[in-house]
Amino acid sequence: MTTTTDAVRTGSDRPAFRYQRRGRWLDHWHPDDETFWENGGKQTARKNLIFSVFAENLGFSIWVIWASVVTTMGSAGFEFLAGLGSGNPTAVSNSLLLTSTPTLVGAVLRVPYTFAIPKFGGRAFTVFSAGMLLAPTLGLAYFVNQPETPMWVFLLLAALAGVGGGNFSSSMANINFFFPEGKKGSALGINAAGGNMGVAQTQLIVPLIITLGTHLMAKDPGGYRFGITLAVLVWVPFVLFAMFGALRYMDSIRSAKSDGRSYRVALSNRHTWIMAFLYIGTFGSFIGFSFAFPTLLKANFPDLAKIGWMSTLGNLAFLGAFVGSFSRPFGGWVGDKLGGARITYYVFGSMAVATALIMISLSLKSFPLYLLSFLLLFVLTGIGNGSTYRMIPTIFGAEARRRAEANGEDPDGAVASAKRQAGAAIGVVGAVGAAGGWLLQQALRESNTHFGSMAPAFWSYAVAFLVMATVTWWCYLRSSFAVRRAPSLAYANV
């Protein structure tokens, strides 16, 4: 089946375009041409967005799967994680090492994955990146049933799960080419939110399936291994469907080219690195705490395992990523209304308060206060993710206009250049922010190893959030820069 739209000639020098359900190479793609967009372009872009969101969601799901699996591997007979529920420092340290490794690998892969789309095409690389998810899933399903498997093998499998984190960059880069400037924000926002929700759904589904598996077998190491195997293999059919859907229905744009010059300019701009530092505090905290939250809950409140339904729901760990994902679009929206820098400033101050509340809840041994404090922190990270990303095009646009006015240059050309540089900066900032999730988990691990407590790490986070609030005010809220008063650019709030 090839057409649902009649051929339409969008210009004297452009051939007709037909919408097709089947995937193909698109030799001509002009989404900013309104006639082209309304006569097949929009349908094609939406079709690719649907399959992109599905594949990226699975990427995040596999990326974070270790956060839930490690909490039951001790019960499955793996000695290096035994005693996690009683706060055994060695088990906690090993758990955080296994959950932080995918974070680091995913952060590193975000850079090359960004450039893969122009080189290989969106359809081919989506098939490849989805297929790569089979390696960590099938590998874990096999080795978790080998009780003598050493920890280094699982560490390697955890590293392979990092490919799911890289999928974010390739997916975002691909969808960026399909939509016109005025619609990129919504499309990329949907794409990003669909991926982030993969964290929450995994942390809800995996504990449920593990519990089901142990009930089907027995509450012994063999039963837990069976439950983990089910929880891992359940994703395989969805991965295969994502590969099939991408191969059959997605398209590749032949004219999609990477802008190497914009990346070089963005890398030399100090604002790229300032925003990368701030994004460590927002997205780094979101992804880092998402990976660590199940371990933190089990280590700090072991009695929750005695509450059957609570244990089945993973001690409610999924709620953190869930509320953080939903609050992200709100951060972009309120950043449009009040200014991204202003919202980011208040977010960091509030995150320091939420961290202090977490420490108070631990001293009181109050699980309700602990959970509510962490959920507040997750909500704030989501808002901060949206507001910081909203700042990037505003900052680059403000600088470009000032240079154009000072040098008597064409303002339209300056704005177009600013958009390309902002897009490049967003890729760099996203990669550094994801690496921040690894740093956060390593701080927890080192604090637990050397001090026998995670309190020093949490108080360090509170201080870091205050430093980030100060940097935001100093660089972007003083009257000398005042980004909050700069006109908004039509770019992605993702």
Protein architecture, described:
The chain folds into two domains: 31-258, MFS general substrate transporter like domains (Growth Hormone, Chain: A, Up-down Bundle); 259-494, MFS general substrate transporter like domains (Growth Hormone, Chain: A, Up-down Bundle). The radius of gyration is 23 Å and the shape is globular. The chain has helices at residues 34-63, 65-73, 89-120, 122-131, 134-143, 151-161, 163-178, 181-216, 221-233, 236-249, 260-267, 270-300, 308-312, 318-338, 340-364, 367-407, 411-451, 455-477; strands spanning 25-26, 252-253. The protein has a two-stranded parallel sheet. With 494 residues, it is mainly α. It has 18 helices and two strands. The model is unreliable at 1-12 and 482-494 (pLDDT under 50).
The helix/strand series, from N terminus to C terminus, equals EHHHHHHHHHHEHHHHHHHH
At CATH level 2, the architecture of the largest domain is: Up-down Bundle
What's the overall geometry? Answer: globular
* Count of separate DSSP helical elements: 18
Question: What percent of residues adopt helix (DSSP H or I)?
Answer: over 70%
Structural classification: mainly alpha
CATH topology of the largest domain: Growth Hormone, Chain: A
**CATH H-level superfamily title of the largest domain:** MFS general substrate transporter like domains
The biggest sheet, with number of strands, parallel, antiparallel or mixed sense and barrel status, is: 2 strands, parallel
**Strand composition percent:** under 5%
CATH class placement of the largest domain: Mainly Alpha
User: What is the number of E strands?
Assistant: 2
The radius of gyration computed from the alpha-carbon positions, rounded to a whole number of angstroms, is 23 Å
The termini sit apart by 34 Å
